[in-house]
Every structure is written in C-alpha cells, then in structure tokens.
Fold this sequence. Notes:
The complex is a heterodimer of chains A (about 325) and B (about 290).
Chain A: E1 2-5, E2 13-15, E3 20-22, E4 32-35, E5 56-60, E6 67-69, E7 82-83, H1 90-101, H2 114-117, E8 121-150, E9 153-177, H3 184-190, E10 199-200, E11 210-212, H4 218-240, E12 246-275, E13 278-285, E14 291-293, H5 299-326
Parallel strand pairs in A: 7-12, 8-11
Antiparallel strand pairs in A: 1-4, 2-3, 5-6, 5-11, 7-10, 8-9, 8-12, 12-13, 13-14
Chain B: H1 2-7, H2 9-28, E1 48-50, H3 57-74, E2 77-83, H4 88-94, H5 103-114, E3 126-132, E4 142-148, H6 150-154, H7 157-170, H8 175-191, H9 202-220, E5 241-258, E6 274-275, E7 281-288
Parallel strand pairs in B: 1-2, 2-3
Antiparallel strand pairs in B: 3-4, 4-7, 6-7
Helix pairs in contact in B: 3-8, 4-5, 7-8
Amino acid sequence: MIFKCQNCGGNVVYSPEKGAMYCPHCEGIDSHQKMEGSSEEACPNCGAPVEIGQFVSASKCEHCGNYIVFDKRIEGMYEPNLILPFKIGKEKAKEILKKEFKKKAFTPAGFLSDAALDKMEGTYVPFWLYDYMANYTFDGEGTKVRTWRRGNTEYTETSFYHIVRDMDIDFDKIPVDASVGMDDQIMDLMEPYDYTILEKFQDKYMSGFMGEVFNEPSGKLEPRAKEKAKNDSEALLKESMSAYSSIRTHHKNLDLNKNGLSYALFPVWVYTYSYHNEKYPFYINGQTGKVVGKTPLSVQKLMGYGATVFAACFTMLTLLKMVLEVL
Amino acid sequence: MKEYFHYFRYLFLALGVVAVLSVVLLITNQPEKAGERTNTECTTEERVFDYADVLTAEEEDQLREQIAERESQIGADIVIVTLNESLKEYARSYDPDVTYDKFTMIYADNFYDEHKFGYNKPIGDGILLLDNIYREDDGSVYTWLCTTGKVENRYSNAMIDNILDEFYVYVDTNPYRAYSDFVDNVYYDMADNGSNITLPLYIPFVWSLIVTVVFIVVNLTNRKGKKTTNQRSYVNGGQPRMRRREDTFIRKSVTSRTIETSSSSGGSGGGGHHTSSSGASHGGGGHSR
C-alpha cells in the first residue's frame, strides 16, 4: 500500500515531529488516503519493479522514492500486535549522532558529513515480547559482620541469620529482537523502550520508514527471553539480601511461567558508514534517542592529532621551564 | 584543516598565551645591570691587595679591570687580599681562644670593615677573598672567603666550599688564573639570582609524552554503548511481590585482636653566620691546604 495525499497526490509519510501523517509536498496534515496494492513485484505508484528481501515489510521505491508498505507482510500471522511509532525524526537523529561523536577526535573527516548522514533510514525492527510470572523461593544462611575498637583491641562480631524468601515477579514484555540482520547484542543495548506509549498496530505509522517482519518464530527465540528473566530474578533475589556480607544457599528454586506473548515493531534509526572497505553501523533508538555503535578510527588523524598535542605540550613546558629557571 | 584548527582552538590559544607570557617574562627579567655604586665612604679604590706578591704588576692590572667590570654587573664589591705572614698574634689579640682556621676570618672581616667596602653602603654588599700563604705553626695554609650583604644571603656553605675548591685548583700553580676564575665564579653565582631551579631537559619531554598518551587513550576508548536496563526494567510495578520474607537471628560469635601502634621522632639541623669585631654581620667559610 501507499499513502497518497488527497490534496496533491504526493506520498504522505508519518512525521515523528508532528506526531501525524504529513505530506512533504503540500505540507498537508492527515491528508492521507490509503492506496491498497497487493503486488510485491511492482511499485503501486509508478509500476517500476521493486526487489524486496525475504523479510521486508516496508521499503522505498528506488525509482519514484515513494514509501511502500507491503500489505501481505502486515496481515494475518504477520500482523503486529503493537507498535512504537518513531518519536525522533531524521533531523533530530542526525543531531543526536553529531552531538554524540563530536568529541571523538580520531574519526575520519567525512564521518558525520550531511551527505553521508542523509542516507540514514528509519527501520521498524520486529520484536517478540514475552510476559512471565516468576516465582522464586530461597532458603539459606547469611552473616552480618560488625567491628569496633576498644583501646588497643579490635572486636569482630559475626551474626548468623536464617534467610527465607518467597517472591513473585511479574515480568512484562521482555523484548527479544526477531531480526536476524540486527545484532542481538546491539539490540539489547538499544533498550529500554518506553512501553507507556506502546500502541495497537496501525499501518500508517510505517509510511516513510523501512520495516521487517519477524525472521524467526517466537518459540525459537524464547530461550533468550528466559535467560533475561532468569538473570533479572537472580539480581532481584540478591538485592533482597543485600544487607548480608556473605550468603550460603541451602535451597533455591525459580519457576518461570509464560503468560503472554506479543509481536511488536520498535523504531530504530540506522546509519551505516563505510570506511576502508569496512562497514560501521550506528543505531539510534527511534523513541529514546539512545545511540549504539563503534566509531571508525583514522590512523592518519590519530598520528596528526597526537603529534600536535605532543608538540604543543613540549613547547609550553619548555617555555615554562625557561621562565621558572630565570625567575 | 578547518576542523583541525577548530578542535585545537583552546590548545593553540593556550600555546599562544604561554608563548607571549614567556617572552614578556624573559625580556623583563633579563639579568638587570646593577645600579651605580652608592657607597661614598669606602676608603680606597683598590681591590687587589697583593701583599704576598704572588701576582705580577701586569696581572694585577688585568684583575682590577676584570673586577671593575664584574662589580658593576653584580652590584657588589669584589676584593682580593694575599698575605704572607702569621696571623696568630693578630687574631689572638681579638679573641684569645680563636682556633687556627679562624685567624684569616678575623683578618678578612676587619679588613673589609676598616675599608668600609660595600657596593650599596659602607660595609654593604660585597665579597672578600683572603689567601694567606704563610704556613702557620700548625702546618697549614689558610684561606678565607668573607661575604657581606646580599652576597652573604646568596652564598650557602656548600657554595662557599665550591668556589674555594675551584680556587684551590690553580692557586699554587697559576695564581692569576685562580683569582681570575674566582672573580668570574662570583659573577656567575650572583647573576644566577638564587631561584636555582634547574629542571633536567627530559622533564618536558616525559610529561608531554604522558599527556599525549593520555589524550590518545581517552579518545580511543570506544565502547559500543552502555547497558541502560536493570533487573527492574521489565518487572511490573518495578518490584517483586514478597510472599514470605524471613530473617531469623540464629547465633553470633565475637573474636578480638590487639592492634599494634608505633611512634616516631624527627631530627634537626642548623647552620649560621657571625658578627665581626666591629659589629657587622658577615658570612663566610675557610679552607686550608
């Protein structure tokens, strides 16, 4: 499908800044009209052939620049339950990147040039969200240590306690990214997303962005969610016993019961910079603005800047030395 | 290039400020020429009293010329006295208990005071070297360096030892050279006006290297990103619901140990100046050979 402007016929996109559908051609707000088109081979606007990858659900026609949402990939089993619409637009994302890496001295000259940044695209990344009701029981022994001094003697008192814990933990929407192309570790670093503005899925939010369907079924990815739930439960148990200086476990048991699953699309800006035949991807959380990515290193710049710092310091210190010796 | 200058603008600014300040300070703190001699009560124009006749007339003239030039540069009188006579009786007449090594001190101090040497005022800034080549009956030849006023303040015991050591290198073989070197050494010691900080050359180098390494390391630290979720991020209500929470005290044990304490004490040092028979303060020190 394509969102057309009723006023001018242009391609209407979702504008994060305005929080509404926006026509960049006539600046109309919410002037969109859905133009259904079920083809996955041709652009519904200009008819040019489009090549879409296996998991792509939204893309941009290379020929006419219109943003296309592929109906069949947001229907049926592929229909997301929830969506977090982009809150950060392209200009804001560019600004965030520039600010984040402004102080990185050794990045290559063109790293944050506008020309390169313009190629940045917003993508809706598929996530599985798992709900768990966890029960954690613990039985063990803990010690508390107290020391004090009287005269020349230091006393150490060790108190022993019997510890019992039985707690329910209600895990809500633990996210696991369902895109093979996105690095798991990086997607974990993108978290957290603010769930309070999570919305029921609406296709209009996808206009203007790239999109993917889940690459892998929820069952296959569940171990990652369970792992997260387990680690968090462990940390919460530990936290409840933080008053003790040492703990011995007699018995403990964690039960995890899945009680909910949803399929959601989360917004991520992706900027890929190529340098010396290597790709450096940067990801910006489309909702919170958090940046994840490793900057490329320009050895030439490192040498030049290092030499400058050295020369300047050496000159200043030598002058200072001369002044100190004369005064 | 624009980016480069923008990035280093503060560094370059600091460099410029330091450079300008240094140049200004170096220019304004040029070893300044001493003012005119203001002592009008000095009883003599003579500076070289070669009573022992170790120098030729020509050498004395050269020495006088050299002294005259150095005096105006450092603003202090430089007096040279050679003797060839026992000072035992002379010194004991002032102080019956004086030891052999102090005979020359008494003579030198009195000589200085009687002639009212001093660049700025009578018995003021100046230095007097007395070498008595007469071998006293204890078998030694004694030399004394008498310092007064700002010269007294400038010369530490170590510096006195130093300059006399150098004087002794040629005193027997080439007296003229010994005295000439002495006059120059006085000038160098006085011109090097006491701050006495001489930093080794490698210090700026090493520090610059450290700063550079820190700069590079700081800028190389390249983390992908920090984890910003915690164990409560996905917990409804932010907290687990406690069904049971018990912390029952069972028993306790107490152990004790004795703490050893120690104490320490410091030492002390000293040094000093003296007052001559006429009441003027002099510094100084002697050597013998």
